[in-house]
Amino acid sequence: MRPTPKRLILDLLSTAPTNGMPVAGIIAAGQLFGISGNNIRVTLARLRAGGMVEQDTRGHYRLAARAAAVGKQVIAWRTVEDRVHGWDGGWIGVHTAGVQRSERRAHRHSTRALRFLGFEPLAAGLHLRPDNLVGGVAAVRQHLLDLGLDRKALVFRMHDLDSAAERRARQLWNTAALRDGYRRSLIAVQRSTARLATLPPHAALVESFELGGRVIRQIVLDPLLPEPLVPTDERKALVTAMCSYDRVGRACWSVFLRHAVAEPSASRRQATRGGQKDAA
Questions:
Q1: Cα(155)–Cα(135) distance, rounded to whole angstroms?
Q2: Kind of pairing, strands 91-95 and 21-22?
Q3: Helix (H) or strand (E) holding 191
Q4: CA-based angle 89:91:96, to the nearest 5?
Q5: CA atoms of 13 and 60, how far apart (whole Å)
Q6: pTM of the full structure
Q7: What is the per-residue pLDDT for 267?
Q8: Of 73, 165, 171, 230, which is least surrounded by CB within 10 A?
């Protein structure tokens, strides 16, 4: 699916270097997907007003503090396997009964945070995931808070579930769908990697952005389940392939953005020289 202006901008900025991206580059990228420059500018203004992006004096945009936690989560997709360790069978629980649904913003942010870290509901107001993330409960608690979990929620370690609850806990994730997703995305990445060099530049840019964005979101939202819940080698194979694909895609995009940013600057210089000649 083609990205919306908002998704395009946030995806570009979430992978941009710390010095951000000039508006000319964002507009040029939007044109590849049929998004007008005016639409990009309007969306940038709305995102800036909403505290999602910020602009420096050079006209470069970057993610603002409000979006920084999510942006950091996205950027870290390449090293997701560094976040996990062996599983001893314990769980991390989050009790959200204190977060009222009537507090819509708090509830929405809490739901998003739990989704990012792979939590699923075991019972009303109780979410859990395997305790296999580096840093244990303390690190997971802080990560959830950074992502927007309401501070009224309780985060704790769980163990010694009765046999029925243990069975239900291990079946909370659709592991068949996860494995099918790993395999399908791995095949798509491998095929696209072989195909990109044969495509026209415009088509290669669009395909690498759309497929790369979809697979990166898949990795970012992966619950990072341990053995024996899923064969972790399948997830690792997808991440490895996506790292290689990302390098190819970035090479294509770096050339495009270099020209896209340089051409408007050259046009402005030419216009300035022309104006000076007219004045003379």
A1: 14
A2: unpaired
A3: helix 175-196
A4: 165
A5: 10
A6: 0.83
A7: 43
A8: 171
CA 171, 176, 177, 179 torsion-angle sign: positive
Per-residue confidence (pLDDT) for residue 161, from 0 to 100 = 95
- Cβ-based neighbours of 184, under 8 Å, separated by 6 or more: none
Residues 6+ apart with CB under 8 A from 154: 93, 94, 95, 98
Report the DSSP pairing between strands 53-55 and 60-63. antiparallel
Helices (H) and strands (E) in the chain, counts: 10, 7
Q: How far is CA 52 from the centre of its chain?
A: 14
* Secondary structure of residue 155 in the 3-state scheme: strand
- Give the containing element (helix H, strand E) for 50: none
Q: How confident is the model at residue 59, as a pLDDT?
A: 80
Query: Rounded CA gap, 202 and 186, in Å?
Result: 23
| Dist. CA 231–CA 208, nearest whole Å | 27
Peptide bond into 228 cis (omega under 30): yes
> Residue 260 CA to chain centroid, in angstroms?
24
**CB distance 33 to 55 below 8 Å:** no
What is d(CA 7, CA 263) in angstroms, rounded to the nearest whole number?
A: 25
Q: Of 117, 134, 129, give the one whose Cα is nearest residue 157.
A: 129
Mean pLDDT by 10 residues, the chain (280 residues): 87 74 89 94 93 84 79 84 96 87 78 95 95 97 93 94 97 98 98 93 91 93 97 97 92 76 49 44
Which of 45, 7, 4, 3 lies closest to 23 in space, CA to CA?
45
The pair of structure tokens assigned to 275 is: 């104006």
201: phi > 0 → left, psi -120 to 50 → alpha, else beta; which?
alpha
The pLDDT of residue 88 is 96
